[in-house]
Amino acid sequence: MPLQVTSKGRYALRVMLDLAQHRGEGVVSLKTVAERQGISQKYLESIVCSLRKAGLVESARGKEGGYALTREPEDCSVEEILSCTEDSLAPIACIRDGTADCSRAGVCPTLPMWQELDELTRHYLESVTLRDLMSGERWKNKEK
Fold this sequence. Notes:
This protein has seven helices and four strands; from the N terminus they run H-H-H-E-E-H-E-E-H-H-H. The protein has helices at about 5-20, 30-35, 40-55, 80-85, 110-125, 130-135, 135-140; strands at about 55-60, 65-70, 95, 100. Helix 1 crosses helix 4.
């Protein structure tokens, strides 16, 4: 599937951003995040499971349990977050992890363009961090 970020990916970003914004509060319950973000708690459970497996969040069990980031917001990229939830970040279906997965790869004149777009997209998403999303400074001068 070509790059089209699913609701799971968008919600994963929202969860991570919420945890980053409330980092000083310790662990945050999933119920609290769900209420603040207007997302089903049940749906968030599968999302944080993916984020936990990737080592982006840690969990604490019990009555006072919840989730917290494992790293500082500036050390967590959008690419890492989306990679936990999306099958692919490539612009077209025949590119998988930067390489062509197509029987026509050897004769396809458009493949180099798609591979370059894939690389540009990946580098851009790697360059954007939770801190960037929190501050918005990166895009302030670009607004009209």
